[in-house]
Amino acid sequence: MRAYRPNEGRAAACPRHGGFTLVELLVVITIIGILISLLLPAVQSARESARRAQCSNNLKQIGLAILAYAQNEGTLPPGAIHTGNAASNAQYHHMNWGIAILPYLELENLYLQYDQTVYNTHPNNLPVLRTPLKIMNCPSDNRAGRLLVPTQRQETAPEGIATGSYKGNMGKRWTSDNGFFDYPNYFGHSGRTSDKRGPLYALGDWNGRKTRYGTCQIAHIRDGTSNTFLVGEYHTVDSTFLRATSTAFWGSTHSFHNLGCPQPESYHRLPDYDRCMQINGNRHYRCDRSFASLHAHNQINFVMCDGAVHSISPDINGALYEKLATIAGGEIANLP
Predict the structure, then answer these.
(1) For the chain, which residues make up each domain, given as ranges?
(2) pLDDT, average across residues 138-160
């Protein structure tokens, strides 16, 4: 007779689990998915904060380079130098502030490659214009580091030229609709008075219309260096309206490619060129000169004429925004 064993048969009745059940796995996967969904916005926010910090640092270095140029040369660099109609012959375009400050950004070798005896988009100068510069591109700009053919500079095809993310402050629009300090057709115009200009604007002589001002000096900034924009951001979503028109180009001397105008209307601070065009009735000459950014809440970074960097809300009061554009408007304007 077989002896009785108290635990016999229990192993078969209560088998040991060797892993998770399907339900348990689904619960774990669901929990992981919830955690990822909660963490993803925080990760994205941290990445954008890092991009924005890098963008601010770029502007800081650009501002210091401009001020170093001013200290050595006695004036700020020219916003651009045009000797002809900005809308037509490229052979009248020569220099801009972005090229002028290259030696002060430790890029002297690139500066020495630029041939100032020929026009900006001459074949001799295209290698310089086609050089992507990290310091001239904001990491939040979806066109940073790309080569594009500007609508206005088709002679740069097929490779195009390097994009940028920053524009110099040319000053306020000096009519209710038009009138910009980057356009040779207005050189010598009676409405182009000194109280409306910014620190960086176009110089030159077109058809005898010589600009009435030389380059800006620090002493000319009577509204206060801490309350006057020097260089600001411009990057937006892709435009379908005019191909690359909605892009800044750091090395191009064509008008608004690296010069902007702080305008009072809020749609000029939208990071959407096509939307700006839709709202203002397709007046491209105004949207072309906007400042805008793709940062969180569309905050726009500016370096001021004292070298400090500030973040400006796109909802800033339009009149105040315009006052911050001028070097000697006589206004009382303090950063918000």
Answers:
(1) 45-323
(2) 91
Name the token pair of 9: 């048969």
Q: Are 201 and 327 in contact (CB under 8 A)?
A: no
Name the strand (E) or helix (H) holding 58: helix 22-73
Tokens at 71, concatenated = 């200290």
Which residues on adjacent β-strands are paired with residue 231?
168, 303
- CB–CB of 76/169 below 8 Å? no
Q: What pairing do the DSSP bridges indicate for beta strands 80-82 and 202-206?
A: parallel
CB 300 within 8 A of CB 262: no
C-alpha to C-alpha distances, 323 to 34, 227, 263, 274, nearest whole angstrom: 48, 9, 9, 26
Name the phi and psi angles at 102, rounded to 5.
Answer: -50, -45
Half-sphere exposure of 228 (CA within 13 A, CB side): 29
In three-state secondary structure terms, 173 is coil
Which amino acid is residue 263, in one-letter code? Answer: Q
Element containing residue 270 per DSSP (H, E): none
Closest Cα partner for 156 from 146, 142, 169, 144?
146
Provide φ and ψ at 195, rounded to 5°: -70, -10
CB 95 within 8 A of CB 253: yes
> At 206, which helix (H) or strand (E)?
strand 202-206
Tokens 């990290």 belong to residue: 134
pLDDT digits (tens, 9 = 90+) for 97-139: 999 999 999 999 999 999 999 999 999 999 999 999 999 999 9
